[in-house]
Every structure is written in structure tokens, then in C-alpha cells.
Design brief:
The structure holds two protein chains of two kinds. Chain A is mainly alpha-helical. Helix content of chain A is 64%, strand content 0%. Chain A contains 25 helices and no strands. The radius of gyration of chain A is 37 Å and the shape is flat. Chain B folds into two domains: 49 residues, no CATH class; 247 residues, Cytochrome Bc1 Complex, Chain C, CATH 1.20.810.10. Classes of the chains: A mainly alpha, B mainly alpha. At the A-B interface, helix 25 of A face helix 5 and helix 11 of B.
Chain lengths: 403, 373
């Protein structure tokens, strides 16, 4: 005899069994023979979105009969060159992609890229979708497990682009990824873990991968370095370099092994092209001096402000102004790309005057002269007191009041 | 004028035993002579002023008096600081800023309070060394030593609880390091951590309030009591051998002695003021409990135990190192009862030798502790 509670359990169990979807039990028999593919696929973003084996491969997933499974619409996809069109079947369909807010022009863009054009020319070694994204184990691009996630991407490109033999075939440099990794962008992304730092696709495009040509480099770099590009376009270098066919940013900063050029390098960098003792080198020295001198004043002001803080002065306002001066200093280097004194002078003058102003104010507040004068006066009284006490002592002992 | 004064004195004398009240002061080392409490205050004072001063109370043996004066100064400046200080984690640092910046002479009172405390501990250490060298712990002066040693330890606690209060960067981390030392000592450590509301992180919300209560109430009361007991034993049995049996060497009158004291106190005060003006304790940023400040060690007098714990970490289990510390501090307290070689002239060197070894070890460990901190 069941109690009322036990009866309820039975009802609950039946209800639960009824909610299990039919497909889970019946369909997807592919994994019985292809367990590795099945396991890799189960982790992928596609598995989450009800994409199944047959979505790409066709055939009949409901049967365990080998013959019946691999007939009809079935395709093995061993022909790599055919894969882009298969991916595009869904990924170029706005109706399907709009819910994910994904672009649908990747296939079209891909066809304009060096990779896509080579594929169109029948080159079996050119990269197709699965070479970068993987096949069964595809993850969303912002998933850290994805082969195209920001920090994994250089390694993914390196699979082909660091292959000396393969690159030799196209006359390409196989050291570009190693260079990138050594440069400031690579260090920032791979070592410091700054996900906002540029990877290969930031400059070369994603699906439309193409190297930027001379005349376009400043646009590519300028996408992030806005102020620097603006100053560069205003300066004499832009016109001159474009006419002479000299690559713009790359000439001083290199291309893949991007170098940070700090203030100190201005001196030597100018001489590389313009020669020692030239007017341009002199200009470089002046810019260098302007920035250095302003930075020194701001540093001095900050040290003083911190000293003031230890002496219990209220320096919150001063520290805020020093922060402002530092912003001007940060602007100075981008502005130096105009290779002219005036824009740099404008910001360094502001930074410098703030630094000097803050120094003056804190010096005045830190002034301990009054306390020191007070101390001298105090010691004078101490001395007088001591003299009186010693005299008193002497009188007492000579008076012989006590024996 | 002087007749008015004596009239007022007489008025009070009929209603209060002024001599008895005044004799209480003598228990604090200010006035080494005994007073006849049955006599009128003026009479008793006149008599006392003309009496010779015992040798152990005469110049230059004035460290005890300096201790009393410094503690009085600490209580006075501490009370002044207490008028503005707000002991909660949110307001402590800002209220010290107010004291240093906005309150008239607030910075001066704060500096005197700090430097006075450092000087107090230094004087207490010098004094206890003097007691040891001169053997002022042998019968019947065991209690002189015990009370003086206890007073030194209480003053350590006073300084420790005090320097944490403003919650500045160094104060906070210095306290954490100090509590690490304290926690390592068995029984006592657990009790202190419990008392100060410290958990695994040592410093919690309650810690500041507990430190404050200990710093302004419990420990000062303990210190004042210990000073009273300490000077009572001295008045009873004297300080140095030979002088104890009321044998008075030298014939300096108390009147002269008081002038000497005035000279010493003037110099002491001038020294403190100079320290406060020329080497003020910097006002550091507010502590961030989640950002350890490197290079902050415990207070200077705890560097040796800290160095010992650092040195033995990995070699000895922490409880054993703590036990060694516990035994060392206990031995320091009950030294008078350990020195059994006094009678045996051939082995008289044993205790001094151990003591010199301890002092040398203390200095070496202090240097080591300062370097690892």
C-alpha cells in the first residue's frame, strides 16, 4: 500500500520522463562510430545552437547502419576548398545570423583577401575557414578556448606564417609572428595580457587579410593612434615620405617588431635619415629638451607634493593638478610627430607651468622657518632658565645652608 | 600676600590632611624624603627640605624621575589629543589630519606625545640595564626589579597600541608585524589577539576600538600603579647596596636636589621640543588593508623577537620559537629568583655572562630584524 507521499513521487517521476526531448534519445547516432569528433563537437558553440552533424555533412544521423548513414546528401568535407561555401550557407544568411548579431559578409570579404583569392585560383595550401577556426571544436571568437581568441590568434597565424617552406613558396617572410611577439604589441598582448593590444588581424583585417601598402600604413596605425596620426599628417614628414615612397610609421617604429620610441631616442632617430648636425637633428634635440624639462618640473612638483602630504599638508588639489600636467606630457609625444616645435611647446609649456606653480605653492606651505625661529627663541629661554638655575644652585651650596 | 596664602593653607589643613596627600607624591619619586604625616604640611616640608638626600636619589641617578615626568607628559599630551581624535576606522586617519593641520599647536602636541613615548622606552631600557649591572634585583630588591621589568613591558604595550591608532600606512603594517610576533608567543599571544579583537588578519574593525581603550585606559592605569609599587619598594629598601640601610652618603640637601631636578627637567623638555620640531614623525597615507606596504617592520623594540622568528622560521616550528620567546620574557621578569649563584663566589660570573650574551644576541637580532623587515 503506497502512502500519499510515495504516490506523489511516482507522479513526479512520470512527469519528468515526459519532459525529456525525443531527439536526444533517438537522433545523432554518428558518435557511435566517430566518438572523437562527437566529443570535440559537443564542446563547440555549434552544439549549443542546435547545429548537428548533418547540418554540414548531410547523410542520415538517425541510423547506426553505415551504409544508410553515409548516402544521399552525405559529404565527407575532405575537399578543403569546398568548405568556405558550406560555412557560408548559414553564415551568409542574414535571417539565421541576425539573432546572434553576427556579420554576414565574411564570405564575401574572404573572397577579396589574399587567402580567398588563392583559393579561387585553386591553390590547395591557402587558408580556408577551418584552418583558423578549427572544424568540430569551433568556439566563439571571444571564448578563451577559441583558436582565434585575441591571445591565441598570433599562434594560429603562425601555423602557416612561421612555416619557412610554405612561406618560401610565396616569397613571404616567415619571421613575422616571431617579430610581432618581440614587439611592443606582442609583449603587451601575450606577456602583459592586455586584451586591447592589437593582434595580427587588427592591422591586416580579419577575413579580408591583406597587408596594408605604403600610403595606407598611417591609416592602419591611426585607427588606434589617432592623435599621433593627426600630428603626423600635419607635419612635413607625411608629404615628403609619401612622395619619396618611404613607408610612414614603419620607417621609425618597424612593422611587426613594433618599437616604442621614447623621448631619449629622438636624438638618434632623426640622425638616422637626416645625418648628424643637420637642422632636423637640431629640431629633434629641441623637442627632446622641451619634453624632458617639463617632465622634470612635474616630477619635482610631485615629489614635493608627497613630501607635503607627509608633513600633513592638504595637497589633494595639487595632486589633481599634477595629474593634469601629466596628461599634457602624455600629449607631447604624439604631437612631436608633426616634427615641429610649436605644438610640442604648447603642451609642455602648460605642463611646466603647472609643475612650477605647484612647487611654489608647496614650498610656501612647507616653509618651516617660523617653527625654526620659534625653536631658537625657545632655546634662548631654556638657556636663560638654566643659567638662573645654576646660579641658584651655586648660591645655595656657597651659602652653606646645608652641611 | 603670604599671610593670605598661609590662611588658605591653614583653612584646608584643618579640613584635609594635606601632608598625607602630599606624601602620595613622594611615592612617585619626586620627593625622596619621608614626610611626617602627623605634622602640618609647611612644617613637614621645611623639615624634609633640609634633610640630606639618599645617595641613590641624587644626581646623576635621575632616570626614575625622568620616567615619571615623561609618563605625566604622555598623559597630559594624550588627553589633549583625545579631545580631537575619533577612534573609528572611518575617521581615525582624517581626525589625526585635523589635529596636525587645523588645530592650533596640534602637530606640536602630537610630536611631543610620540617622541616622549620613544624617549620613555629608551630611558626604561637604560634603567633596567643599570639595575642589572648594579645588581638591583638581589634580595631584598627582587620586587624593585619585577615592577621595573613589568613597567617596561607595559610601556611596550602602550606604544604598540598607540602607534596603530591613526591607521596610517606604516602604523597599520607595523602593527600587523608586531601582532605576528605577539601571536607567536603561546598563551599570552592567543590572549592578546583575542583581547584586541584580531582574527586571522590580525586587524579587524574592533581592533582599533580595543587598541584605543587599552591605550587610553587600561595600560596607563597599569603603568601608574606599577610606578607607585615600584617607588614604594624603593622607598622601603633603597636602590643600591649599602645605601639601603638608611646609610646616607654625601650631604646634599633636598633643596639643592630639587634645583638639580629642575635643571634636568628643563634640559629634557628642551630636548623633546627640539626633536619634535626638527624630526617630526611624517604623516603617512591612510593604510589599505589589501595592499601590503613593503619594508615595514615592527616597532624598533620588537625587531629582535621579530628577527628571531624570521631566523628560525623553517628551522623551528613556530610554537617552539614562540615558546623560546615566552621563556626568555618570563626569565627576564623573574630574574631575581633565578640568580642562585650569588652566594657561590666561584660561580658568580654565570648570570652576568648569560646576561651579556642575551644583550649581545638582542642587539644582533635587532640588526637582523631591521634588515629582513
Amino acid at each position: 500500500m503506497m502512502t500519499r507521499n510515495q504516490a506523489w513521487y511516482v507522479v513526479l517521476l512520470v512527469a519528468l520522463l515526459m519532459t525529456v526531448p525525443e531527439g536526444v534519445v533517438a537522433a545523432e547516432q554518428c558518435g557511435v562510430c566517430h566518438p572523437e569528433s562527437r566529443v570535440a563537437f559537443a564542446e563547440s558553440i555549434h552544439a549549443l545552437e542546435q547545429v548537428t552533424c548533418t547540418s554540414c555533412h548531410g547523410g542520415d544521423a538517425a541510423t547506426q547502419d553505415v551504409e544508410r548513414a553515409h548516402r544521399g546528401s552525405f559529404r565527407s568535407l575532405r575537399d578543403r576548398l569546398a568548405t568556405p561555401a558550406i560555412c557560408a550557407a548559414c553564415h551568409s544568411d542574414l535571417k539565421q545570423m541576425s539573432a546572434y548579431n553576427l556579420p554576414v559578409d565574411q564570405y564575401a570579404v574572404y573572397q577579396t583577401s589574399q587567402h580567398g583569392m588563392a583559393v579561387a585560383g585553386g591553390d590547395p595550401r591557402a587558408a580556408v575557414c577551418i584552418d583558423c577556426h578549427g572544424s568540430h571544436e569551433i568556439h566563439a571568437a571571444d571564448d578563451p578556448r577559441s583558436s582565434v581568441a585575441a591571445r591565441n590568434l598570433p599562434g594560429t597565424c603562425a601555423v602557416c606564417h612561421s612555416d619557412e617552406e610554405l612561406m618560401g613558396h610565396y616569397g613571404l617572410d616567415s619571421g613575422v609572428v616571431a617579430d610581432y611577439e618581440a614587439g611592443i604589441h606582442g609583449q603587451s598582448l601575450l606577456v602583459a595580457g592586455n586584451l586591447a593590444a592589437p593582434n595580427c588581424t587588427s592591422c591586416h583585417g580579419v577575413h579580408g587579410a591583406t597587408p596594408p601598402g605604403v600610403g595606407d600604413i598611417d591609416k592602419v596605425c591611426g585607427a588606434c593612434h589617432v592623435q599621433t596620426r593627426r600630428a603626423f599628417l600635419d607635419g612635413a614628414h607625411y608629404q615628403g615620405m609619401t612622395e619619396a615612397g618611404i613607408p610612414e610609421c614603419e620607417s621609425c617604429h618597424s612593422n611587426h617588431a613594433i618599437q616604442r620610441r621614447d623621448v631619449d631616442s629622438i636624438d638618434t632617430l632623426c640622425a638616422d635619415c637626416h645625418g648628424d648636425g643637420s637642422d632636423q637633428v637640431l629640431l629633434g634635440n629641441k623637442i627632446h629638451t622641451l619634453i624632458e624639462a617639463a617632465a622634470a618640473e612635474v616630477d619635482k612638483a610631485e615629489n614635493l607634493a608627497l613630501e607635503g602630504q607627509r608633513a600633513a599638508l592638504d595637497v589633494e588639489d595639487h595632486l589633481g593638478r599634477i595629474e593634469e600636467a601629466r596628461t599634457y606630457l602624455t600629449e607631447a609625444l604624439p604631437l612631436a610627430h608633426a616634427v615641429s616645435l610649436e605644438p610640442v611647446e604648447q603642451v609642455t609649456r602648460r605642463a611646466r607651468s603647472i609643475g612650477e606653480e605647484v612647487q611654489h605653492e608647496i614650498y610656501a606651505k612647507l616653509d618651516r622657518t617660523e617653527a625654526h625661529i620659534g625653536l631658537v627663541v625657545f632655546w634662548f629661554y631654556v638657556f636663560m632658565t638654566l643659567v638662573i638655575l645654576f646660579m641658584l644652585k651655586r648660591r645655595m651650596s656657597s651659602g652653606g645652608e646645608v652641611t | 600676600m603670604s599671610r593670605d596664602k598661609s590662611r588658605i593653607l591653614d583653612w584646608f589643613s584643618r579640613r584635609l590632611n594635606l601632608t598625607e596627600i602630599f606624601s602620595l607624591l613622594t611615592s612617585y619619586g619626586l620627593f625622596y624624603a619621608e614626610l611626617d604625616t602627623r605634622k602640618h604640611l609647611r612644617e613637614a616640608l621645611d623639615e624634609a627640605l633640609e634633610r640630606p638626600v639618599v645617595s641613590y636619589g641624587r644626581w646623576p641617578r635621575v632616570l626614575g624621575l625622568i620616567v615619571v615626568v615623561l609618563i605625566a607628559l604622555e598623559i597630559l599630551t594624550g588627553a589633549l589629543l583625545g579631545l580631537y581624535f575619533l577612534p573609528t576606522p572611518q575617521t581615525a586617519h582624517a581626525s589625526l589630519g585635523t589635529i596636525l593641520r587645523d588645530v592650533n599647536f596640534g602637530w606640536f602636541v602630537h610630536q611631543i606625545h610620540f617622541w616622549g613615548a620613544q624617549l620613555l622606552i629608551a630611558v626604561l631600557i637604560v634603567r633596567i640595564l643599570r639595575f642589572f649591572i648594579q645588581g638591583v634585583y638581589r634580595p631584598p630588591r627582587e620586587l624593585v626589579w619585577v615592577f621595573a621589568a613589568l613597567l617596561l613591558l607595559v610601556c611596550f604595550h602602550l606604544d604598540l597600541t598607540g602607534r596603530a591608532l591613526p591607521l596610517t600606512e606604516t602604523a597599520y603594517w607595523s602593527s600587523v608585524r608586531a601582532l605576528e610576533v605577539v601571536k607567536a608567543v603561546p598563551v599570552y599571544g592567543a590572549f592578546m589577539i583575542f583581547l584586541t579583537g584580531g582574527g586571522e588578519l590580525f586587524v579587524t574593525d574592533l581592533t582599533l576600538l580595543r587598541f584605543y581603550v587599552l591605550h587610553v585606559a587600561l595600560f596607563p592605569a597599569l603603568a601608574v600603579t606599577l610606578i607607585y609599587l615600584h617607588f614604594s619598594t624603593i622607598r622601603r629598601i633603597g636602590l643600591t647596596e649599602g645605601a639601603g640601610d638608611k646609610k646616607r652618603v654625601g650631604r646634599a640637601a633636598l633643596r639643592n636636589h630639587l634645583v638639580n631636578l629642575a635643571i634636568i627637567l628643563t634640559i629634557l623638555f628642551a630636548f623633546l621640543v627640539t626633536l619634535a620640531v626638527l624630526t617630526p614623525l611624517p604623516f603617512q597615507r591612510e593604510a589599505d588593508p589589501y595592499a601590503t606596504v613593503p619594508g615595514v617592520g615592527p616597532p624598533w623594540y620588537l625587531l629582535a623577537p621579530f628577527g628571531f622568528l624570521e631566523l628560525t622560521s623553517g628551522v623551528l616550528p613556530q610554537w617552539l620559537a614562540g615558546l623560546v620567546l615566552f621563556l626568555a620574557f618570563s626569565a627576564f621578569l623573574v630574574l631575581p629568583f633565578l640568580d642562585r649563584f650569588r652566594v657561590d663566589t666561584r660561580r658568580r660570573w654565570v648570570v652576568p655572562a648569560i646576561a651579556i650574551a642575551v644583550v649581545v644576541a638582542w642587539v644582533v637580532l635587532t640588526i637582523y630584524g631591521a634588515r629582513v623587515a
